[in-house]
């Protein structure tokens, strides 16, 4: 799915990158509720929430390799992230092909495809729940970590429902860098008609990095990088032939330039066996074609934070 998986790039990692970029160590969003004299003297809040970062944006994508065909799309996205008590939250909801723009293999709300694609990635701090510091060495904090992906297609071949669950941690580094890791087991329900539907099928290793580069012309410039490595699946064996893979690797590099409300970003993503497609010759009844599941894809976005 073209919309899938930029998910992590603008996650809670970004919130922590914002923190690192500020000399005082606290994102400016969180300072707007500080008591300074009378209530009348307080500045107006910058955003609707002092902890939940929200934005809406338009995203253009090219050469996305999660399915049998490479796709291009222009879609709408609502995104949120933030930390409240033990809850480290991130999620987004996309409206695929929201503007009727895309290549011939792109489907979405304007051409009777899926009207909604979403991903929710909550983490719950085990340290906070137990009231104990469980960190050791470079591992600062531990989480129960989840990643739920849902594509609301109109039938089995157009729908995905996947839950990753496992353990996560934040990792200390000697640099002003936010680094985190999650390790998941995968529960698969619908998967676009694939043979691994309704099964426990494989694992995912994930790492995220965010580095605040600096402030330029009043905007904060941040570099974000992350990867997902899926392995231990039996999709290839269950499908038969050589069309599917038991592994998939996706690595994404994002450059974000944001102001008080406006946000701009661009991303380059490398796919290896994207969507667990094996890069073989496929034929769905309209003649053979080459699946190109390995290669680069690109994104660009403009959004508004509120």
UniProtKB/TrEMBL annotation:
GO terms for cellular component: cell outer membrane. Transmembrane segments: none annotated. Residues 1-17 form the signal peptide. The keyword Cytoplasm does not apply. It is found in: Cell outer membrane. Keywords: Cell outer membrane, Membrane, Signal. GO terms for molecular function: nucleoside transmembrane transporter activity. Gene3D superfamilies: Nucleoside-specific channel-forming protein, Tsx-like. Belongs to the nucleoside-specific channel-forming outer membrane porin (Tsx) (TC 1.B.10) family. This is Nucleoside-specific channel-forming protein.
């Amino acid at each position: 799915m073209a919309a899938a998986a930029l998910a992590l790039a603008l996650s809670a990692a970004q919130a922590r990158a914002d923190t690192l970029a500020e000399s005082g160590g606290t994102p400016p969003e969180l300072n707007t509720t500080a008591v300074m004299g009378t209530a009348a003297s307080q500045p107006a809040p910058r955003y609707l929430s002092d902890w939940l970062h929200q934005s809406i944006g338009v995203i253009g994508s090219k050469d996305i390799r999660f399915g049998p065909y490479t796709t291009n799309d222009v879609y709408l996205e609502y995104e949120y992230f933030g930390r409240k008590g033990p809850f480290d939250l991130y999620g987004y909801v996309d409206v695929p092909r929201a503007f009727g723009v895309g290549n011939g293999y792109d489907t979405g709300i304007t051409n009777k495809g899926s009207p909604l694609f979403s991903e929710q990635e909550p983490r719950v701090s085990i340290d906070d729940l137990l009231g104990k510091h469980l960190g050791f060495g470079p591992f600062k904090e531990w989480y129960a970590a989840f990643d739920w992906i849902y594509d609301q297609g109109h039938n089995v071949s157009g729908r995905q429902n996947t839950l990753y669950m496992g353990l996560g941690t934040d990792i200390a580094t000697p640099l002003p860098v936010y680094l985190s890791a999650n390790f998941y087991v995968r529960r698969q329900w619908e998967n676009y008609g694939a043979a691994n539907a309704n099964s426990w099928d494989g694992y995912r290793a994930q790492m995220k990095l965010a580095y605040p580069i600096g402030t330029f012309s009043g905007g904060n410039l941040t570099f974000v990088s992350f990867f997902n490595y899926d392995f231990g699946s039996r999709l290839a064996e269950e499908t038969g032939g050589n069309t599917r893979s038991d592994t998939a690797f996706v690595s994404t590099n994002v450059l974000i330039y944001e102001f008080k409300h406006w946000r701009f970003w661009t991303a380059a993503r490398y796919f290896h066996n994207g969507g667990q497609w094996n890069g073989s010759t496929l034929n769905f009844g309209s003649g053979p074609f080459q699946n190109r599941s390995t290669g680069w894809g690109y994104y660009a976005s403009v959004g508004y934070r509120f």
